Each structure stands twice: as C-alpha cells, then as structure tokens.
Predict the structure.
Amino acid sequence: MAGGNFPDAGGKAEGPLEMLSHVHARTLQHCEALRQLVLHLDERGCDEQSRRAAASVLRHFDIYAAQYCSDEEEDLFPALLESVAGSDPVCLRDLTSAMAQQHRTLEMMWQRLRKPLAAVAAGKDTAPDNGSVDVFVALYRSHIEHEQVELLPMAARLLTDDALEQVGKSMRKRHSVTSLSLRA
C-alpha cells in the first residue's frame, strides 16, 4: 500500500495520522463503554451483557490502546523531533515527553482496572471502583483531546510525505505482527 496508508473500516486508505485519530475515537467510545459498564454492574450485577462489555473493553485497552502508544512513542514522536532538528525543538520535546509520561500513567491506571474487569468478563459479580474509572476516563479524554488539537495537527504541518511514509510503514509492521499473534 503506497503512502503509508492503512485501510479504514470502509476499505479506503488512510494515513498514519488519520489512523491515530480513529484509534482516539474508538478509545473514547471504549471509555464511555467502561463508564456504562460500571453503572450497569451497580444496577444489575454481572450478567451476559456486562461480561461481553468487559471483554470488549479489556480487548481494546490491552491491544489497541497499547499499540497506539507504541505508534506514537516509537514512530510519531521521533519523526516529529527529527523534523525540527536545527531549530529549537525544546517545546516539541517537552510535549512528546509529557505525552509519553501520560501513556505510562494511563497504563498504570489501566492495570489497576484490568483485574476487576477480567473478573467481570469471567462472570464474577464484581465491579471496578467507580472513582478510579472516572479518573481514568477523564485523563484519557484530556490526553486524546490534547493529541487531537495539538499533536496531530502539528505532525501534519511538520512531517514530510517521506517521514509520514516511514511512520506508516512502521505502524503497519507493528499492527500486522499483532494481528498475526492474535490469530495464533
């Protein structure tokens, strides 16, 4: 596939920045699903619907959210920093460093939420702490908004077509490896 593009849900090609934007949208949907799951568990307990919802949230944050962090930290952030070589990259380095630190915080918070969600997915009548879910969802929303409003537009402005091609190539490789490992 040329241009570092990925097929979207409709089979059309999208570039790496669009792909990251779509992952952001799906992550926000899963954040809302997590909030709704906690409410459902409080009202109805663990049932088939809550088990399916917990499994879906687990799959998204265990696989896709982790991939997206790698896509940014291993590909996008270095490409951005390289694009401003020779000028003053301090602001960009601070931004990407803060984004990477937020990824670590979100991962740590996810690991705390994961255990009770895995129990729900297994049919146990338990629930993640509502306050912890609220904090996790709020931080994820803020993080994604910052990336959508600041980071991705900056990448679109600063990165050359060749740099985007490299980012896309690396992301495709990472995603195909994960897709293959999921089939095994």
